[in-house]
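Why does residue order matter? Because the sequence determines the fold. Keep that principle in mind as you read this record.
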Amino acid sequence: MASEALEDWTPDSLREIAVEAARLGGQTLLAWRERFTAKEKGPADLVTDADFASQEAVRKLLADRRPDDHFVGEEKIGVDQTRPGPGEIGWIVDPLDGTVNYVHGFPAFATSVGAVIDGQPVAGAIYDPLREEIFSASRGGGAWVNDTPLQVSGAASLGKSLVAVSLPPQVTGDSPDIAAFVDVLERARAVRRTGSAALNLAYVAAGRLDAHWAHVIYPWDAAAGVLIAAEAGATVSNCAGGPFDVWRADYLVASTAELHRELLEMMSSRST
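Structure:
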């Protein structure tokens, strides 16, 4: 039975719904692991039955809990991908972040659910069903993994940092993304490309990674994770150093202002 639409809301109440929805999406992914089929929706960009099943499960739950809110999902079939209107709560969902990992049995994938108002995340959750870890945050309310508060690492220099990057599916050797990757690789302790932007952001929040950047990314990849990282103490901007906007396809997230500044200088030098 559908619940009443909430006329009043708080970031914490939206976080609770995001946690419930992300957990359901992740559980759906597990249920499909032995029976999905995959196809290419673009060059080197896969989609599976599990993506659609997870998204539909999340969409129905959100429609039950918040029937008047706007829904934006990664998978387009039957989903309105227009932006929410001014003052409207929008749920931005990646039902399976890390689809290629999922298809190959590589254990790094998650469901991401973020609530956004006027382009700014106010609540979100990322669920890793293999590790049974639910990362969540509400604006002004801190960030959590399961019942444990999250805090970023204190890494202040690139030479002592473990950094992750998200690259576009069809990146070429002459791409600025590769040039920036090589620059950071030469100076960082190590660089990782896990194939899941959502988990990268969650891991910055948890102090497992010290920074993460992406020049080309989608709203559903970042809507929950950027908020979780910020609420855990991360410094957040776009790759040019300006304010993060969920509808803009880039971000730079680092555990400290010092590390963020060092990475930003490298990004800026590559854009000039």
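Confidence is low (pLDDT under 50) at residues 1-6.
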